[in-house]
Each structure stands twice: as structure tokens, then as C-alpha cells.
Amino acid sequence: xxxxxxxxxxxxxxxxxxxxxxxxxxxxxxxxxxxxxxxxxxxxxxxxxxxxxxxxxxxxxxxxxxxxxxxxxxxxxxxxxxxxxxxxxxxxxxxxxxxxxxxxxxxxxxxxxxxxxxxxxxxxxxxxxxxxxxxxxxxxxxxxxxxxxxxxxxxxxxxxxxxxxxxxxxxxxxxxxxxxxxxxxxxxxxxxxxxxxxxxxxxxxxxxxxxxxxxxxxxxxxxxxxxxxxxxxxxxxxxxxxxxxxxxxxxxxxxxxxxxxxxxxxxxxxxxxxxxxxxxxxxxxxxxxxxxxxxxxxxxxxxxxxxxxxxxxxxxxxxxxxxxxxxxxxxxxxxxxxxxxxxxxxxxxxxxxxxxxxxxxxxxxxxxxxxxxxxxxxxxxxxxxxxxxxxxxx
Length: 394
Known about the structure:
Elements: H1 2-13, H2 19-29, E1 56-59, E2 62-69, E3 75-76, E4 90-94, E5 99-102, H3 113-122, H4 127-130, E6 145-149, E7 152-159, E8 163-166, H5 169-172, E9 180-182, E10 187-191, E11 204-206, E12 211-214, E13 228-230, E14 235-239, E15 252-254, E16 259-262, E17 276-278, E18 283-286, E19 300-302, E20 313-314, E21 332-335, H6 346-353, H7 359-367, E22 375-378
Parallel strand pairs: 2-4, 3-8, 4-9, 8-10, 9-11, 10-12, 11-13, 12-14, 13-15, 14-16, 15-17, 16-18, 17-19, 18-20, 19-21
Antiparallel strand pairs: 1-2, 5-7, 6-7, 21-22
């Protein structure tokens, strides 16, 4: 009897049929044996353990989350990953690009010691950069290492993989239960297609830092539960889709660093919950639609980065700024318009909306603007309520 009970318990904790095969397909196709940084458990026994495979989370004997961030994956995401099935709630395969990441952004002599360390590894270091790194620390191709210089210790993280190819449409077609899809900072290319728009339960979508092109599909407006959308730093073009205005629960929207043209859609006035919008570094024009006056939760509106390379050209007509006067929670605004040409009530209105102790922060920001034609005022918003992710956080 005891044997039977033990056997049943073991069976109930095992991953669902096909899930192990799906995970092993990803392992084989993305350099699991050669470029992955952490492979604990992979290939041995059951993905749900014990011990569980690195990055795999299970519940009631089924894989519900796969999180492989900065893990050196190299190659295209296989269609077979769809075998994880509709029970998968979170998929994170992000920041798998060749290069170096630093925990301390301070530059020394124009070259961060982590970059010097990377150059030493690649055999391209110059005499000026060698002294910034400790050559005795050269180790495994992708492990955490430290470069010491000037008595300070920096943590350098090196990653050897590059996730590439198109969006894994065939896999996504089977992963219909996803709430979190994070494929940011890889080398994904091609167009969006409709595979993402079919994920009706998505709360968080992050595809920033890739090479995706074409237009942003208006069908994303059908993702009624979406709370965060990041599509910044890609190669997308065409108009901004007005259909996004249907996303009643969207709180954060990044579309900066693309090639979008046209104007801000008036339909975006329907974004009742939005707190953050960034459309800088595109080639947009026109003004702020009057419907934006309804965005009562908006706190951050970035329309220009302040760099000369930003192609946005916003209207200087006062009528095109009036909607901003109604945004009493707005604490950061960036536009490439001389202050003298803004709506005369705009700056005064926002100072009146700020508590007295916030005004010093606003003045400090404005005092350090590097471009006299760049207008900004702001204060960091307090800690935000976490986004919904039933699989344990993004």
C-alpha cells in the first residue's frame, strides 16, 4: 500500500506529457550544452523535479512558467516550445545578446572596466584599456566576473548567446494561456503578424530592444487585459494604431525608438488607466489631441528625448497644448518646444498642481536641461502597484 501511495505521489508531481520534450527542444536549438550560463537540472529526470530545472516553475505537476533571462541562449525559439501548452502563464526569454552588462554605469577614462574586460576576452584590447581590467580574472565564457580598478569593484556580466529569427508564431499559437510574454533585448526580426494578438489573457508584453519591423498591429487593441506594452527600440514604422485606445487596463506604454509617422491618435483618449506614455525618438508630428484631457491617470508623457536625432516635430500652436492643462497628475512632460512658445497657462498650471515641497525638485530638473529648447518638468512617481502576474512576477 505504501509503495502504491508513493508511486501515485511521484506521478502527480511530474510535468505533463510533452512538456519535457518541448523544453529539451529549446535546450538543443539554442545552445543549451554550449552557450547557456545556467543549466541546473536540464536533461535529468522531470522538469518539475526534484530538483526542478533552472528557470522552470511548476504547479500541480505542470509547467506554468519558464524564465530564462540573460542565460546565453543562442538561436531561434523553436515551434516545439508550444508543447508547453495553454497552461503556461509566463514566458521570459530575454536579454540574450552578445555583449556586456554593468551594474555600475560609472565611466573611467571614457571606458568602463567591464568593457575593458570584454575587450581583453575578445583579444581587441588596447594599451589604454588593459590597465582598467584584471587579466587574472578571465574565466568561463559567460560567468559572472569582477574587474577591479581604482580600489572599486564592479560586477561584470557577459553573455554569449543571441536569440534571433522571427517571433515564434507557431509556438505562441499553442501558448494561449500566457499572461506574461517577455522577449526583450534579443535579435528578433521580421514583422509582428497576428500571433501575439491571439494571446487574449496577456497582462504584460515586452518585445523591446529587438529588430522587429513593419507596422504595429491594431489587433493588439483586442488584448483587453493588457497592462504593460513595450515595443520600444525596434524598427517599426507606419502610423500609431488608434485601436490601442481600447485597452482600458493599459498602464504603461513604450513605443519610443522606432520610425512611426503621423500624429498621436485621438482614440488614445480612451486609455482610462494609462500612467506612462513614451513616443519619443520617432518621426511624429502635430499636437496633443483634445481627447487626452480624459487621461486623468497620466503621470509621464515623453514626446521627445532631447537628442538632436529625435525626429518628432510637435506643433507650437497653443490650441495643440490645451489638453495638457487638464492632466492634474502629470509629473513629467518632455517636448521639443521652446518654453516661450508653450501654452502660457501650461507651466503655471502644473506648478499649481504640485505640492509645495515638490517644486524644488522640478526646478532642479529644469535647471539642468542641456538644450534650451527642450522643456521638461517632473518628479519621480512613488512605488507603483505591481502588475498582475499569477506566475510569480515578471
